[in-house]
Structures are given as C-alpha cells and as structure tokens.
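Batch job 17 of 40 flagged for manual review because the log was empty.
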Amino acid sequence: METDSVFLQPTGSGAGDATSGNPYAGLVSHLRASWLSRKTRPMEYRVAQLEALGHFLDEKKQAILEATAVDMGKPPFEVELSEVFLCKNELHETLNNLSHWMKDKQVDRPLVLERTSSGGFCGNDTLMQVTLTSLPFGGIGNSGLGMYHGKFSFDTFSHCRGCLKRGMGWEALNAPRYPPYSQKKFGIIRATSKVTRKSDCVLL
C-alpha cells in the first residue's frame, strides 16, 4: 500500500447529493474515492485520530454512561468496563504498535508491479495464475474482496475464534469481579487489566 496524505475536508452545508437529499453522500463518495486510490493515511494522522478518540472517551464518559443507561438499561459499572475501558485498551494497544504495523518492508518486485495495482499478477503468460491453487486469486475495489483457492478460500470464509480456559485454582483472586460492586473493586479490576501507552508514566 502506498502512503500518502489524504485528508477529509469538512463537507459543509449543502455538500451532499442534491438529487438524493442525503447530506452524507459527498462524504461517502470521498471515502470511496480514497479507498479506491489505495493510498493510506500517514501515521501522524492516525495517531492524532486515535488520541482524539481517547480524549473524547475521557471527556464524554459521563454522557456515555447516562446514554447507555437510558437507551440500553446498562448499569454504569458494566458500561465503564465493557465499553469505555475496553475501548481505551484497544486504543492504547494500537498506539503502542502502530509504528511497527505500518513499517515498510523491502521486497523485490518488477516495475510493472511497482506501477500497477491488481488482485493478482501473471508475467510473460496469461491466466495461468488462476489455475494454481497454491496462489491466492482475488480482486481489489470493484473487482471483489477476499482471496480464493485452496487454503485461501478456507481462510476467507473462516472465523478465528479466540478461546481462553483458565484453571479454577485461583478463584479467590476473582472476588473483585463479583457483586456487590464498589469503587475499590473497580479500581482493582482497572489496575490489573489496563493497557497503557508506552510513553505514559505510571507511579506505583
């Protein structure tokens, strides 16, 4: 994937599709064009967006707790753990690893692959890549999503389910998870489950 600076501009009033009356049509069209360009956002932009989401969760936490209580009947304790807390853990995990995930990898490829974009490639021949079950066959953009052939087909239509089975010998340590709940129990759960930014300074 090529990295480039592609930024969303505010649509403003009347920026939607005048014929459909959809105020988000222009934004959707811009996002689709960005996707088809196969250019990704720079890391600085992504970090700023993730950090902004973290600030939003901090600033609007009380509003989120109240909204989920009214709309879904969830108690604040449950929402703070299952919604806000886990979301912030995901944010910090991503921020801690984003530079590694986005790091360029040097690979040898001919000029035609450097200058073109496709779901597959066949050099000095035609259609033969379709016959090989050892190669993934698929498309990009309007040509389709996913990869097929052999194990690639299996993986495309498979769901990797994460499973955890723990022993019962340490059940006493789970006491904070059970009611009646208190701020002390909640603090213990947060302290033992929190994912922090690598740049954070934690005083113990």
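Reviewer: the log was empty due to a logging misconfiguration, but the result itself is present. Residues 1-15 have pLDDT under 50 and may be disordered. Unflagging and moving on to job 18.
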